């Protein structure tokens, strides 16, 4: 699959790159994508939720009324969950929501996500660029040139570029990452995937194993 390489002004450079069929042209496995996205979101959860149960409530242990003869249900403690101020019945406890997936499934999920974006023609390849200093205005002009100023976009770098990252950090719809940080969730969450030329080799070598 060949795709044209654009410059930072959104113009065709006249060069084309060949995207690997093993990474960008497979039959997508939707269940693998689902599992990988589910794991990513589960790992974001803190799991610190907590409610007190009746054993943790501070209160009197006196029996609040006699056992028989009241015409209502028996009750032994004011700390019971059926009374106001009592403990929560089966309340949430701190826990971890994370779960494991094997590496081959995660690679399949990322290849599937990239293939979905390729089928949607939502992948843009841009020649490598760098900024002399962090400049959000300069990065915004690149977005406008590529027609991405109103869309969610994910920029994938071949190697860390601090000035480029800092230039995009406060833009809500844009995220800049390196190819080692690429995840299925981030791919699927973006409307457009912008790959720098230098990132292609790393992506294909990581996912074609």
Features:
six-stranded mixed sheet, single chain, 2 domains, 209 residues
Query: Which fold name is given in CATH as the topology of the largest domain?
Result: Ribosomal Protein L4, Chain: A
H/E element sequence = EEHHHEHEHEHEH
Quantity of strands, as a count: 6
Helix content: 25-40%
The major beta sheet can be summarized as:
6 strands, mixed
Measured by DSSP, the beta-strand proportion falls in 5-15%
Mean pLDDT: 92
CATH superfamily of the largest domain: Ribosomal protein L4/L1
Structurally, the number of domains stands at 2
User: If classified by CATH, what would the architecture of the largest domain be?
Assistant: 3-Layer(aba) Sandwich
Our measurement of the CA-to-CA distance between the termini, rounded to an integer number of angstroms, reads 19 Å
The largest sheet has its strands arranged as 2-1-3-6-4-5
Integer-rounded radius of gyration: 27 Å
Q: What's the number of helices?
A: 7
Structural shape: elongated
Uncertain segments: none
Q: Would you tell me the structural class of the helices and strands?
A: alpha/beta
Top-tier CATH class of the largest domain: Alpha Beta
């Amino acid at each position: 699959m060949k795709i044209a390489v654009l410059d930072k002004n959104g113009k065709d450079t006249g060069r084309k790159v060949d995207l690997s069929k093993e990474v960008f042209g497979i039959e997508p496995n939707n269940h693998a994508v689902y599992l990988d996205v589910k794991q990513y979101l589960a790992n974001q959860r803190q799991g610190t939720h907590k409610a007190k149960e009746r054993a943790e409530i501070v209160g009197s242990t006196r029996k609040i009324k006699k056992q028989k003869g009241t015409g209502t249900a028996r009750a032994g403690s004011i700390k019971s969950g059926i009374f106001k101020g009592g403990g929560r019945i089966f309340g949430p406890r701190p826990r971890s929501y994370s779960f494991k997936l094997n590496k081959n499934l995660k690679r399949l999920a990322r290849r599937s996500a990239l293939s979905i974006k390729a089928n949607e023609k939502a992948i843009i390849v841009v020649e490598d660029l760098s900024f002399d200093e962090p400049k959000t205005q300069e990065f915004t002009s690149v977005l406008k040139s590529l027609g991405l100023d109103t869309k969610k976009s994910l920029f994938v770098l071949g190697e860390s570029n601090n000035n480029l990252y800092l230039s995009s950090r406060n833009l809500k719809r844009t995220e800049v990452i390196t190819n080692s940080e690429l995840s299925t969730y981030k791919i699927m969450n973006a409307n457009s995937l912008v790959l720098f030329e230098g990132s292609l080799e790393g992506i294909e070598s990581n996912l074609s194993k």
